[in-house]
Amino acid sequence: MNTATKIFARLAAVSAVALSLIGCTTVEPYQKGNLSDYTMRSDRDELASVMTAHIQFSREATTGGEGVGGGGCGCN
Fold first, then answer.
1. What DSSP assignment string belongs to 37-54?
2. Measuring CA to CA, how many Å separate 73 from each of 67, 69, 70, 76?
């Protein structure tokens, strides 16, 4: 390996470590109320949930399984 390749490899490694540490944070107890707010829910828009399920069914030819527990034996 030449010098430029070594420098690029080191820079890539340092960048990967830096990017992986950017998202690490601690949520304080007083901030948890903001995270549990209604606007933070992914299912707050019923039409969007129905359309997402329709798109998944159309692409993958699968349906069901939303909120239903159990195994794959069909004994629910």
1. SGGG-TTS-HHHHHHHHH
2. 17, 12, 8, 8
In degrees rounded to 5, what are phi and psi of residue 31?
-90, -15
Does the pTM exceed 0.70?
no
At 1, list the tokens: 């390996």
Instruction: State the Cα torsion 50-53-57-60 to the nearest 10°.
Output: 160
What are the two backbone dihedrals, phi and then psi, of residue 75, each rounded to the nearest 5 degrees? -100, 30
State the pLDDT confidence band at 10, using cuts at 50, 70 and 90: very high
Asked if residue 54 lies in contact with residue 66, where contact means CB atoms within 8 angstroms, the answer is no
